[in-house]
Specification:
The protein has 131 residues and is of the alpha+beta class. The protein has a single domain, classed as Immunoglobulins (Immunoglobulin-like, Sandwich). The protein has one helix and eight strands; from the N terminus they run αββββββββ. The strands form two sheets. It has a four-stranded antiparallel β-sheet, with no helix packed on it. Strands 2-8-7-4 form a four-stranded mixed β-sheet, with no helix packed on it. The N and C termini lie far apart (90 Å). 15% of the residues are buried.
């Protein structure tokens, strides 16, 4: 009886380890977004244009993205081009033109992967008055 109990405990332990291992292999991190300034604020004069880029690693594969000015003061023109669905490493690029009102703004990127995970990052922009 003790031998049977030991065999059952061993089978249960191996089965649990296999189940845990196979489940954790499928877990993918949400997209990771970085940008060259990594938190430093851009300063631009009213009407000035700057180029920007975001670097993305999406273990779950690219599904979609959006770019927007956070305070609707700037205009964003994306220059990225087509990103194939499922791509795991890519760069989002564009040009930001400051609006005509001085103050804080930002360039916000939101990326969604094929697993349904979503991440966002914002490049802070301070719009300065024309001298």
């Amino acid at each position: 009886m003790k031998n049977l109990l030991r065999v059952l405990v061993l089978v249960l332990a191996v089965g649990t380890a296999s189940l845990t291992s196979s489940c954790s292999d499928d877990d993918k991190n949400p997209p990771v977004i970085t940008f060259p300034t990594n938190g430093n604020q851009y300063e631009v004069t009213v009407g000035e244009t700057i180029n920007f880029s975001f670097i993305v690693v999406a273990e779950g594969g690219y599904a979609s993205h959006t770019l927007a000015a956070t305070a609707n003061q700037g205009v964003i023109a994306e220059t990225t081009g087509l990103i194939d669905s499922g791509t795991e490493n890519f760069t989002i690029t564009g040009a930001y033109t400051a609006g005509d009102v001085a103050g804080p703004d930002g360039i916000k990127l939101t990326v969604k992967d094929n697993e349904g995970a979503e991440s966002s990052a914002t490049i802070n922009v301070d719009i300065l008055s024309a001298q």
